[in-house]
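Risk mitigation, structural track. In case the binding assays with zinc ion fail to produce interpretable data, a predicted complex structure has been prepared as a fallback.
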Amino acid sequence: MTDRCCRCELTAVRQVLAFGYCLPHLRALYATFEHVGVGLPVGDDDLLQCCRCNATWHGPFGDICWWCERSREAWIEQQAALVLVPPDLHIDLNDQERRQALKAWAHRLRNAVDAGIIDQQQARRALENAS
Ligand SMILES: [Zn+2]
Ligand SMILES: [Zn+2]
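Fallback model:
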């Protein structure tokens, strides 16, 4: 284990994939992770601060942030509810416009499945109900 940060001259507090990181650089690295923050120590005791939402709590170094995780779950639920609503098929749309709207929606559903927001069964059921 190297005792220097791979980005600067500070002492490394943790290794990530064989690279040492000081606390500021570790915080910057964790902040690039999607959706969920990680708790990093502030001060002397075991007080942690989330690198994304700045929530504080007591726990072990690198703890996953409960607040971020909660808001991520809420975000996923919200996105799922939004994407599962079929497009507004106006009565005055012609067949081609209707097909295009459904096709675009199917594409959004597929993206949502790929992103893990809904599962394939939910997407299929939504499409079946709409057609
Ligand atoms: Zn550094
Ligand atoms: Zn957080």
